[in-house]
Amino acid sequence: METILRETQDSLDQLEKKIFHISPEMLKEFYDFRLNFMKNFDESNDAIDIAQLCVFSRLIFHDLTVKEELFAIIPMKERTTGENIYNSFKTFLLSFELLPLMKKLVSITTDGAPAMIGNQNGFIAFCRKAN
Question: Is 116 inside a domain boundary?
Fold first, then answer.
């Protein structure tokens, strides 16, 4: 059992390193980016029951090619309400100076959870209020 737990932790550490390795490449694309983009969001719990917000980006380039990649995994330190999800995502964007790109966000795909799609307090509602 101890070996399995150690291997699981090693895998999680490798995944985290890979995610942070991908992020700088994605950031460069966002900085150079001039067209609109879409985001896919999904919230899930990890092995120790901490909610994680997975953010995928779909970029559409001038030649109409499309690229989709994992953009971020954001740990949710609080309850997964629409406001908390929005604030965590906004903090992430601010930390990489990407908040101005929210104006180019044209589509959000979610799993349909109330915290994501609620009319008043869902993540999408907070995104609409911000724009």
Answer: yes
Domain range enclosing 41: 23-130
Q: Are 48 and 62 in contact (CB under 8 A)?
A: no
- The Cα 119–Cα 114 span in angstroms is 9
Domain membership of residue 4 (yes or no) is: no
Contacts of 23 (CB under 8 A, 6+ apart): 71, 72, 96
Query: Between these two residues, 130 and 29, which has the higher pLDDT value?
Result: 130
Residue 33 lies in a domain: yes
User: Is residue 103's pLDDT more than 70?
Assistant: yes
- Residue 93 has, within 13 A of its CA and on its CB side, a CA count of 19
Using the Cα atoms of residue 96, residue 99, residue 100 and residue 101 in order, give the sign of their dihedral: positive
Supply the pTM of this predicted model: 0.64
